Hints:
- The chain has ten helices and 16 strands.
- By secondary structure, it is α/β, with parallel strands linked by helices.
- It folds into three domains: 7-134 and 310-321, ATPase, nucleotide binding domain (Nucleotidyltransferase, domain 5, 2-Layer Sandwich), CATH 3.30.420; 146-177 and 247-307, Nucleotidyltransferase, domain 5 (2-Layer Sandwich), CATH 3.30.420.40; 179-245, ATPase, substrate binding domain, subdomain 4 (Actin, Chain A, domain 4).
- The longest helix has 23 residues, at 239-261.
- The strands form four sheets. The protein has a five-stranded mixed β-sheet, sandwiched between helices.
Amino acid sequence: MRIRGSVxxxxxxxxxxxxxxxxxxxxxxxxxxxxxxxxxxxxxxxAAADALAEKEPQDVNVIHPLxxxxxxxxxxxxxxxxxxxxxxxxxxxxxxxALVCVPSGATWVERRSVAAALEARRRxxxxxxxxxxxAAAGAGLDLAAGAGGFIVDIGGGTTEVAAVAGWRVVRAxxxxxxxxxxxxxxxxxxxxxxxxxxxxxxxxxxxAELGLTGGQDxxxxxxxLDAARRTPRLEKVPGxxxxxxxxxxxxAIGRTVQQVLSxxxxxxxxxxxxxKVRLTGGGALLPGLADRIESVAEISAVVAEDPLRCVVRGAxxxxxxxxxxxx
Length: 327
Ligand code: ADP
Ligand code: MG
């Protein structure tokens, strides 16, 4: 297949990454688009759009079009992707293949619609690929040699748990619970436990700092609104409050890991044991999560290198290795 002019795209629920052949990763931005609700004009995409979220500027609608792992707003998704590709500098006449990872919670129709939008507006030959396969390749498993492995990709909207072998999924489950659900759980716990209304951004910071372990100090500062007075308040948030809030989500992830692991074919057991459970996606960075999954799975679990970029790196490897692309 032609590699020049090819791109690999990780269209994630929270972050979108684009790799261009010969140039590497050229774009890494939040999956967000801000639209003027009066005129319908696009105000911003990516980081600039995400920065406006929850701030409620007048007549601005900030959309995270893939938020829960489904393509909730196809037009917004297509506009966002079009804008990202323009920014990625893919405006030359050369058009190669586009390997695109979309959340596996998206329906076939939704996925095809994204592909069709890209083909129509950008003239790429689009191939949709399974996210866990890309994650596995990006996490260092040598799938080209027919090896297999076990991947837990914890993104924003979904957690993908999968056994893979030779560029294919063997067994997989997609759980509609991941980083966003963790953020929501922290927001709810802070409100009921501390009378503090947090933004998702503030909840995210607490999650990354305290996680399941309580971090360095066992607490972290956060600014929110006092629930009664509705004025800004600085609070020391205890690690136990955050760990307790995260428990149901982490439990659900653990159960899904157990379920998929208990269903793998015997021929894959050695590959999985040797390769360890590999954690990818931003959620892999949650303090204490790898240890928890290790104790649930009863085999070693490791966080892949640079877990937020595994999927796009893996998709890039698939382009470079001449992964069989139709057409
Ligand atoms: P997606 O593929 O769905 O776009 P990503 O793999 O980009 O998701 O991961 C985004 C998620 O990872 C977000 O929910 C974000 O809050 C979370 N995340 C990022 N860094 C950390 C961290 N250090 N600890 C816990 N969660 C994190
Ligand atoms: Mg992802």
